[in-house]
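Record 1 of the preview.
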Amino acid sequence: MQSLLVVEDETDIAELLRRVFSKEGWNVGVANTGLAALSAVRREPPDLIVLDWMLPELSGIEVLKEIRRHPDTRMVPVIMLTARHDEIDRVLGLELGADDYVTKPFNHLELMARVKAVLRRLDMPAPTSRAPSFQSGDLEVDFAKQEARLRGERLDLTPTEYKLLYHLVRNAGHVLSHGTLLAKVWGREYVDEVDYIRVYIRRLRDKLDDPPDAPRYIRTERGLGYRFITPG
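->
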């Protein structure tokens, strides 16, 4: 049984989510403060966290930062709940490692759909019969092991970051539009969420040591999308 931690200080919302996810077969825990959330996560990391932005004692963003710092929890998917409508706040959550966000007020079916989409992204692309790996300069992507190495060192990529890199290198030399990448990596319901692709491209470039003004791997094709530079 998959485990879910709901971090929400509004009792009625927390109880609603507990009931809804329990009916779906989840083992649901609830924490109503940021400190209680960190204690629960450190005690037993859940399979997924639904995390409210505004919390007493410690904000959701601070909780997210702590979760991403710890090696035992940094890969746990996190969906943030926020009453904030400012695009900057949403981008900040993604930049700090949130996998998705849902804006309050929300329909529980919308949240459930987002949860299913996040879990789909945890499934790595299946290796194909084509070349078992891809090499470009100091970067190697091993499709069989589903990992990437830079200068021989394994990159610490999240499942979403690996999927994004996978689709870019599988189409090296070709421009992939924002919509195409969003559909392939996040799902068709995300094709208009351009913030997601921008944030994750930036995160991937940071890990590849690939500055956008002098790219060796990922080139921005303005107004079109992104192209993985063909080796040589």
